[in-house]
Amino acid sequence: MPIRTASTRTSTITAKATDISSVLHRKGAEGRLRLGVMGGTFDPIHHGHLVAASEVAAKFGLDEVVFVPTGQPWQKSHKQVSEAEHRYLMTVIATASNPRFTVSRVDVDRPGPTYTIDTLRDLRTQRPDADLFFITGADALAQILSWKDIDELWSLAHFVGVTRPGHVLDGMGRKDVSLLEVPAMAISSTDCRIRVAAHNPVWYLVPDGVVQYIAKYGLYAEGQFPQDVRTTETDESASTE
Length: 241
Hints:
alpha/beta, 9 helices
């Protein structure tokens, strides 16, 4: 089914998000804005992502959390991923009711594979008045911590790894890395896709509007995501997929 990318509804939501962002900037005028950056594939976005962003915002006193759907996730180049525009619009729908949540297109609009360093560089350029707190899942953070030559990443943001209960992650003793346990991270995008393919409900796992969006555009039908297998090895509940 063709996707419409220039609807009045989407434009209205984007304008509202911009207005809210301006208010938050004024609130933080006396000091630096504390901006959370929630990166992920969001295929689909689910309540685990939203609860994680809310928990981190409360624990770290964030003024705003911007969700950044990946464009072409380089680490998933061998896997099927839904169109970036679908994932972006589902994220807009899911976050619209929270005045402190906004959505950025920096990764969706940038050509080529999406890398965290480019995300943070672009947001730092767009929001020079903000201290960035990059929020990501435990699995993704574990990979980031293993990268070489990542000094610039540490200079751009404080990293917050969200984990499900019982998931152990070593922050390597870095002062610029924090860990936060979030029970709702037991929900996974992989499991949501598997449930949709099997004609099982995903109500209350993902926001109501996202359930309706998935049905409208026929996302995650059986056979669309051959890599999805319900095993412990493929469970991604500790990531921000």
